[in-house]
Specification:
The complex is a heterotrimer. Chain A contains ten helices and no strands. By secondary structure, chain A is an all-alpha fold. In chain A, helix 3 packs parallel to helix 6. The radius of gyration of chain A is 22 Å and the shape is globular. Chain C has a five-stranded mixed beta sheet, with helices on both faces. In chain C, strands 8-7-9-6-10 form a five-stranded mixed beta sheet, sandwiched between helices. Classes of the chains: A mainly alpha, B alpha/beta, C alpha/beta. Chains A and C meet through helix 1 and helix 9 of A and helix 1, helix 4, helix 5, strand 8 and helix 7 of C.
Chain lengths: 251, 211, 325
């Protein structure tokens, strides 16, 4: 059946191109598929601005995401396990979490620029804010949902608190935690693109690229950039999914 | 000779939803002798699970004391092993990983752990299943892993909370035979709780009725 | 319906929706004139004056604000989606939009000349353009006038433009990043240079008038279809614009007060900024030609005949009629 959905997609794209040729879909409203391909190729070959090639833009954005996402995971996972385990800590920290969480990461941009400038750190900070909360909350829920008897069984076998945290809560919360990581990475990737709109020091970035294409009114390059962003986002998630199926083969 | 386990006037009271007091266990005293297979027989809901949990150290008694070899039980202790009705294996660990858990926590090095675990795999007759996950095992196999996991730590007494109630009749019968032969081979003290009269009579040296 | 079928149907509908949605956005009947202008852009003081003093109304033109934009390209996108009839906008983004066939507008009047500057951080030790080599300079947008001015200045002094790290930052972020040493210089339109001075953070290395005397900056554009349908309305607009421009020249104090109201900046900054802006309403064809040639070379636009393009986009017939009156 896979060929059927592929065929349907091809037909839709062909229809789209046809409508564009007939002038029903003017190129300034929405670029034609061929136009987008052409725009994409200029991004690859010439770069935008000329000399700034697409793969470098993508690499810079990925770097920012890994930085921010890495820190978010490193902080949120242990904090989530501890908050899931200890009622007291959960009670103390939850108000802070619930106040900061609803604030969109992008609202932090002016502060981020003030604190961190326009280099990789401020973008990483914005991404951190976006990725942190899904990972934290999913980890907490993963711990809370664990069967109490699992903990009792290990206690009876002599497990101390550290043993429980490391050998029971962490692996037990993993399914929920991993979902949190996937969501966090997705949000992180979306955030980096928007965060780059305000300007980057290195002159590279996919969000930055789209901003430039917007400045020179090239919708074909804008959509080309969007497609690249979409693909990379999908690719990142598929990596996480692959790892997930290996890690969670016991389920 | 001193009894291995002594319960003196053990009481457990719970606060129910409407803030009423529920007497789950009411003034129980008993003794368990080393090496014996003791069965506690009682209807469902008569407090036998609560009793077991108190001996395992998972619940503090509201009144009374429990002594293991004249030491007061204050919490969980690897000297007291516990087998649950629902097996409660760690699903993310293999059979070997589950069996080794207690030794891991005790700090035994990996080579020794592995050796001992393989011995017990033989005892529970699960050769070939070392690297399977619990989800791939039948109920009887899971319970055997749970038993191996418990006795590899050499507890002084093994508590069993209706361990075969979740199994089908045939498997249950096989498991009862297996448990008996294990008891004969190892001489472990077993404290077995059930609501099944036939099972209690078949397995136990001594029977205590709980009402 | 099994999952696979559902998935392919969903994908097809998604693509279909993507195709159809642009077709759905269409304007309804035009009653008032929808005007757009740039936020905090002191170049467009004539628009603020005309709005404040009611010049548009006096000429019988009903104005609604179609949008206040952060940058030229955004305003041009609004023209592309037919949300604006008239706009005060940078000549650069307007030119690019028309050349890339994104919007269809005509330039009917100039709004100002000059009014930008290269600003460097105080105590940065940058005394001349040569000192910019190896440093980081920010411009508000790729291929915009400020970007062009910087390149032109470097070219005039035979400094290779590659030796300066040029990045794009939006003007509101330029002053904080200059202050925190993230960038060493920026090129922006007034009042940002003036603000950098009054805040004590920066000083002007060069005014744009020194790089390119009397270079065009902002213009009044009109949607071509609207111009065709309502030339009389456009003429009324132009009358108000000319009046406002004269007003600025003759009433500095009052004009600067209006400037503070619309840009939100303090009076000292506004007055300083106004000194470097030349308010003018006659479009400069030569200036535009030079800029179009620059864009062509850069590859940002592809125009066969720059001269012909300039003649096509500038329509001064209406302005001339108004001036003759």
């Amino acid at each position: 059946m896979k060929w059927f959905s592929g065929l349907l997609l091809l037909i839709s794209v062909f229809l789209w191109q046809l409508l564009s040729w007939l002038g029903i879909l003017p190129p300034y409203r929405i670029p034609s598929p061929l136009g987008i391909l052409k725009g994409l190729s200029t991004l690859l070959v010439d770069g935008l601005p000329p000399g700034y090639l697409l793969h470098r833009h993508a690499l810079e954005s990925l770097l920012r995401v890994f930085y921010g996402f890495g820190i978010a995971s490193a902080l949120a996972i242990p904090l989530g396990i501890v908050m899931g385990w200890s009622k007291i800590i959960r009670a103390i920290l939850t108000p802070f979490v619930e106040i900061v969480r609803p604030v969109p990461p992008l609202a932090w941009i002016p502060l981020a620029i003030l604190w961190f400038g326009i280099g990789i750190k401020s973008a990483a900070f914005i991404i951190f804010l976006g990725a942190f909360f899904p990972i934290l909350l999913n980890t907490i829920s993963g711990v809370l949902m664990l069967d109490v008897r699992l903990i009792e069984a290990t206690k009876v076998l002599g497990a101390r608190e550290t043993d429980i945290l490391l050998k029971v809560l962490a692996p037990g919360a993993l399914p929920s935690l991993w979902t949190g990581l996937r969501i966090g990475l997705g949000i992180g990737w979306m955030t980096v693109v928007a965060a780059e709109f305000t300007g980057v020091k290195s002159g590279y970035g996919l969000g930055y690229l789209i901003m430039i294409a917007r400045d020179i009114q090239r919708p074909d390059q804008i959509v080309g950039g969007m497609i690249v962003i979409g693909f990379i986002g999908y690719f990142l998630d598929s990596i996480l999914r692959r790892i997930e199926s290996r890690l969670l083969e016991w389920m | 000779m001193e009894p291995l386990l002594r319960l003196i006037n053990i009481r457990k009271t719970f606060n129910s939803v409407k803030d009423q007091k529920v007497e789950a266990v009411d003034e129980i005293s008993l003794e368990v002798w080393e090496g014996e297979f003791l069965c506690i027989l009682g209807r469902s809901g008569c407090g036998k699970t609560t009793l077991l949990r108190m001996i395992a150290g998972l619940e503090p008694p509201t009144g009374g004391e429990i002594f293991l070899e004249n030491q007061l039980i204050r919490g969980t202790d690897p000297n007291v092993g516990l087998i649950f009705q629902e097996f409660v294996l760690l699903p993310w660990r293999t059979v070997l990983g589950n069996i080794e858990f207690g030794l891991e926590v005790m700090g035994v090095d990996q080579a020794q752990r592995r050796r001992k675990a393989m011995e017990y795999i033989k005892i529970i007759e699960l050769e070939g299943f070392e690297h399977q996950y619990p989800k791939e095992l039948s109920g009887g196999m899971k319970q055997r892993v749970a038993i191996a996991r418990a006795i590899i730590c050499n507890p002084k007494i093994l508590l069993m909370d209706e361990p075969f109630a979740a199994l089908d009749a045939q498997t249950r019968f096989n498991m009862q035979k297996f448990l008996l032969s294990l008891w004969e081979k190892t001489g472990k003290t077993i404290f077995f709780v059930t609501h099944n009269v036939d099972e209690a009579v078949f397995l136990g040296q001594r029977l205590i009725l709980l009402s | 319906m099994n999952l696979k079928r559902a998935k392919s149907l969903f994908m097809a509908s998604a693509v279909l929706l993507m195709i159809l949605t642009p077709l759905l956005g269409n304007p309804c009947a035009m009653q008032k004139v929808r005007l757009g202008y740039l936020q905090s852009d002191l170049h467009q003081l004539a628009a603020f004056v005309a709005l404040e003093k009611g010049f548009f109304q006096q000429e019988g033109v009903q104005i609604t604000i179609g949008g206040i934009f952060k940058a030229g390209p955004e305003e041009m996108t609004a023209f592309a989606s037919r949300e604006l009839d008239v706009g005060y906008v940078g000549e650069a983004p307007a030119t690019v939009a028309v050349a890339n066939k994104v919007a269809d507008v005509k330039i009917v009047a100039q709004v100002n000349l000059e009014g930008s500057a290269i600003v460097v951080r105080k105590e940065s030790g940058i005394r001349s353009l040569q000192d910019l080599a190896g440093k980081t300079a920010a411009v508000p947008g790729y291929a915009q006038v400020q970007d062009f001015l910087l390149r032109k200045a470097l070219l005039q002094n035979t400094i290779p433009s590659r030796s300066v790290n040029v990045i794009i930052i939006k003007p509101p972020e330029m002053i904080p990043t200059l202050q925190t040493k993230q960038i060493d210089a920026f090129v922006a339109w007034e009042p940002y240079p003036a603000k950098a001075i009054t805040k004590g953070i920066g000083e002007v290395l060069m005014y744009s008038g020194e790089i390119w005397p009397r270079h065009p900056c902002c213009v009044v554009v009109v949607d071509t279809q609207f111009l065709g349908k309502h030339p009389d309305v456009v003429r009324g607009l132009l009358r108000a614009h000319v009046k406002a421009t004269h007003f600025i020249k003759g009433n500095f104090e009052e004009a600067s007060k209006i400037g503070t109201k619309y840009t939100g900046m303090d009076l000292e900054t506004v007055k300083l900024a106004m000194k470097s802006i030349v308010y003018e309403y006659v479009p400069d064809e030569e200036g535009l030609l030079e800029y179009v040639t620059f864009l062509n070379k850069l590859g940002t636009i592809k125009v066969e005949d720059p001269g012909e393009f300039v003649k096509r986009i500038i329509d001064v017939t209406h302005l001339h009629r108004v001036l003759k009156e």
